[in-house]
């Protein structure tokens, strides 16, 4: 009897436990689905210019933009009653942290994120719809539009530009002089780029190479190579963001030029094939590279510190023209914010010419307001002005699955460049189809 | 058949039947039962909260459309599984994980055995050797990976320079830059990190062999090699089987070392199954359902592999 009782009791407990656990799981599932639904609620109650009533606001940005984000928040807190508390997330943790916060409804009031991630975030409903507010901004016509487009879903706008980072062509004037090139003239076509890189390679100096490429970093590769396509007035991906056009004749010309440089002794810097992006900017900074595409923010920091002379020009298209990659971060008000009027106060303030001047231009960073870009850099280095002038021709590629198709480690785009430059170039068409299928899923 | 019918007696046992002689015995039994459950309940609760509940949640996830940012959006079985098998990275990562598991196990086991013998036989340096070999095991796998990442780095690490002088490799090229280099660099790290631990396990097995068996072997005039082959190895089989299970299971679940050292690169050549799960969930597709589906499959595979291994272990124990 004792044994019987035991056995029966155990069975009951076990069944009860399973039932309880299943209940927990189903409740969890229920929670998840309900929190996923309440997006896209238009924030209609916000007064023009927002509210400045001494509310404490939270904001997330990512660590690589620490300087700009801190400048913006400090300037705002100094001049407003509202106080923004900034938290910087490590770059690799952003997706996980935002994901967890979405599930628990604990997103900060203001959320800034890498512009290539923003279309996916917007589609998943983590930003509030700000169409009415954004459209009534007096400065809207002056703002670079890439970061607004990235947060536009079904005609509804959710985001504004926060930090604009662009890619430019830079060259080492000292090496150019040694190689017998005109140190004041950068490349204006792909052919000139290749010729100039080869001329520097021919110097045969130890550890010095013509150019450099981050072969294992999909993010750096779109940042450097897409503008060469756009400069040619072509598209890198279609407007819907569902098809990759990176197997076009122009694109293949780019891969062929780099493949040619890779075969040239000292043409493409050692380590290019394996470069994951972590030390991507170091070789040029150390004066070992002739000419390459570079982040504008990184090069402006080099103007005063480098031992050699640097030239800056827009990135040339394959056959001429020029463009740039409008990277950086877009900013919006999160779906969980209970202080949308106050959050909008911060956003609308940041878009004004005055704020753009104080936060970005005065600190030699790139502003997002075209008027400030034109007039606000009177005392700046002329090379900064050259870099800023490219913004009006710049583009931001917009696709929901952009991160997976292009930026992620081991992305199909990374494999395409590996094949096109160092491997079997005939695989490029197949690789491009793989990107398209990732974009379209 | 509602849940509460089954759960009720546990929470509030039904009142004892008020009847004749059986009453006291019945109450005593019930009391004893209740006490038993009270003793067992903390463990049972832990088991439910930490093991059963997560497994159930993962299975539910695997059968739902459940994204990282969008949350659960209803069942979609078997979509996650069909999507999973359509991914070319799946086959690639399974192949690599198996290759890595075979490599580490084949290299680690003899080294651990050799170290155990060394420590067993050596008299003078015994304590020093044991400590030296065990110290890496005190380091977390993530810290060890970071340490090796620095050692392998062409910018700050010494290994590139040494390889350049000894083997004539290119100075600027990272060891982690080629598929073979990345795999072997990780194997070296894992062997360094785990050799001491496996040595300890093997040593316990060695010391459990009674010395009179060796005495008998010596009297029979067995050579050292013969003693090793006919005495030590057969008696050590249960230990060897256990270390092998640990090594194989651990390697099949490899994540930290690759996440830190190679990130699955170059070009996905060192992508393990668990890394693919992580990527699907947090990096590329941000699809928790898909990642959960792969986790469920991996769990099933591990259960089957461990069952086969345990059966082998049991046979060994019977032989003994």
Which key terms come to mind for this protein?
heterodimer; A: 441 residues; alpha+beta; D-Maltodextrin-Binding Protein, domain 2; five-stranded mixed sheet; three-stranded antiparallel sheet; 12 strands; 46% helix; globular; disordered N terminus; B: 320 residues; mainly alpha; two-stranded antiparallel ribbon; 13 helices; 2 strands; flat
What can you tell me about this protein's structure?
The complex is a heterodimer of chains A (441) and B (320). Chain A has 441 residues and is an alpha+beta fold. Chain A folds into 2 domains: 24-163 and 328-385, D-Maltodextrin-Binding Protein, domain 2 (3-Layer(aba) Sandwich); 167-323, 3-Layer(aba) Sandwich (D-Maltodextrin-Binding Protein, domain 2). In chain A, 46% of the residues lie in helices and 13% in strands. In chain A, strand 10 (315-316) and strand 11 form a beta hairpin. In chain A, helix 8 (190-202) packs parallel to helix 10, helix 10 crosses helix 18 (412-422) and helix 18 (412-422) packs antiparallel against helix 19. The relative contact order of chain A is 0.17. Chain B has 320 residues and is an all-alpha fold. Helices cover 74% and strands 3% of the residues of chain B. Chain B contains 13 helices and 2 strands. Chain B has a two-stranded antiparallel sheet with strand order 1-2. In chain B, strand 1 (64-67) and strand 2 form a beta hairpin. Chain B is flat, with a radius of gyration of 27 Å. Residues 1-13 of chain B have low confidence and may be disordered. Chains A and B meet through helix 1, helix 3 and helix 18 of A and helix 1, helix 2, strand 1, strand 2 and helix 12 of B.
């Amino acid at each position: 009897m004792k044994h019987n009782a035991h056995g029966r009791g155990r069975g009951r407990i076990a069944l009860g436990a399973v039932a309880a656990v299943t209940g927990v799981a189903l409740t969890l599932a229920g929670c998840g689905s309900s929190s996923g639904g309440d997006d896209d609620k238009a924030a209609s109650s916000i007064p023009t210019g927002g509210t400045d009533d001494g509310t404490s606001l939270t904001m997330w940005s990512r660590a690589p933009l620490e300087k700009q984000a801190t400048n913006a928040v400090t300037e705002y807190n100094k001049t407003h009653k509202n106080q923004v508390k900034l938290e910087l997330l490590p770059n690799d943790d952003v997706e996980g942290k935002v994901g967890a916060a979405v599930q628990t409804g604990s997103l900060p009031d203001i959320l800034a994120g890498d512009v290539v991630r923003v279309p996916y975030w917007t589609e998943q409903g983590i930003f509030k719809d700000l169409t009415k507010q954004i459209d009534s901004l007096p400065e809207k016509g002056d703002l670079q539009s890439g970061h607004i487009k990235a947060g536009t879903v079904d005609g509804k706008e959710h985001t504004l530009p926060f930090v604009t980072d662009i890619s430019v062509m830079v060259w080492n004037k000292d090496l150019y002089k040694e190689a017998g090139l005109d140190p004041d003239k950068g490349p204006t076509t792909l052919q000139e780029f290749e010729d100039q890189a080869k001329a520097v390679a021919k110097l045969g100096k130890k550890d010095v190479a013509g150019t450099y490429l981050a072969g294992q970093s999909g993010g750096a590769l779109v940042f450097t190579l897409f503008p060469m396509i756009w400069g040619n007035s072509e598209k890198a991906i279609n407007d819907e963001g569902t098809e990759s056009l990176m197997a076009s004749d122009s694109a293949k010309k780019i891969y062929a030029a780099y493949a040619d440089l890779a075969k040239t002794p000292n043409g493409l810097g050692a380590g290019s094939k394996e470069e994951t992006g972590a030390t991507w900017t170091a070789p040029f900074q150390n004066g070992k590279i002739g000419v390459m595409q570079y982040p504008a923010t990184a090069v402006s920091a080099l103007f005063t510190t480098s031992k050699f002379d640097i030239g800056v020009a827009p990135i040339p298209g394959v056959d001429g023209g020029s463009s740039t990659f409008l990277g950086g971060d877009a900013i919006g008000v999160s779906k969980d914010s209970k202080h949308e009027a106050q959050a909008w106060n911060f956003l609308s303030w940041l878009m004004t010419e005055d704020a753009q001047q104080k936060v970005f231009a005065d600190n030699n960073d790139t502003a997002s307001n075209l008027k400030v870009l034109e007039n606000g850099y009177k005392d700046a280095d002329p090379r900064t002005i050259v870099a800023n002038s490219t913004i009006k021709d710049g583009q931001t590629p917009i696709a929901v699955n952009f991160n997976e198709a292009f930026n992620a480690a081991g992305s199909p785009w990374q494999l395409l460049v590996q094949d096109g430059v160092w491997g079997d170039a005939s695989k490029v068409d197949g690789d491009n189809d793989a990107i398209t299928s990732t974009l379209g899923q | 058949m509602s849940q509460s019918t089954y759960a009720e007696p546990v929470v509030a046992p039904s009142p004892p039947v008020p009847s004749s002689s059986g009453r006291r015995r019945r109450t005593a039994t019930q009391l004893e039962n209740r006490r038993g459950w009270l003793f067992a309940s903390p463990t049972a609760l832990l088991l439910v909260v930490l093991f059963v509940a997560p497994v159930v949640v993962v299975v539910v996830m695997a059968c739902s459309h459940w994204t990282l940012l969008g949350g659960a959006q209803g069942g979609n079985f078997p979509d996650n599984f069909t999507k999973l098998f359509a991914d070319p990275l799946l086959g690639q990562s399974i192949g690599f994980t198996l290759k890595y598991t075979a490599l580490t196990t084949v290299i680690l086991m003899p080294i651990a055995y050799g170290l155990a013998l060394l420590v067993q036989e050596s008299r003078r340096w015994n304590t020093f050797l044991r400590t030296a070999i065990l110290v890496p095991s005190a380091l977390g796998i993530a810290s060890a990976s970071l340490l090796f990442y620095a050692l392998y780095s062409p910018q700050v690490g010494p290994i590139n320079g040494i390889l350049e002088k000894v083997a004539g490799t290119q100075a600027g090229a990272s060891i982690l830059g080629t598929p073979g280099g990345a795999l072997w660099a990780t194997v070296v790290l894992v062997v360094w990190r785990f050799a001491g631990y496996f040595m300890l396990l093997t040593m316990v097995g060695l010391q459990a062999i009674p010395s009179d068996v060796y005495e008998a072997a010596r009297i029979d005039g067995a050579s050292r090699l013969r003693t090793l082959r006919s005495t030590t190895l057969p008696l050590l089989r249960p230990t060897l089987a256990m270390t092998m299970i640990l090594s194989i299971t651990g390697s099949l679940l490899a994540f930290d070392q690759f996440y830190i050292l190679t990130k699955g690169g170059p070009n996905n050549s060192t992508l393990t199954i668990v890394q693919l799960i992580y990527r699907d969930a947090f990096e590329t597709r941000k699809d928790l359902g898909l990642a959960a589906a792969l986790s469920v499959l991996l769990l099933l595979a591990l259960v089957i592999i461990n069952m086969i291994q345990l059966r082998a272990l049991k046979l060994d124990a019977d032989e003994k």
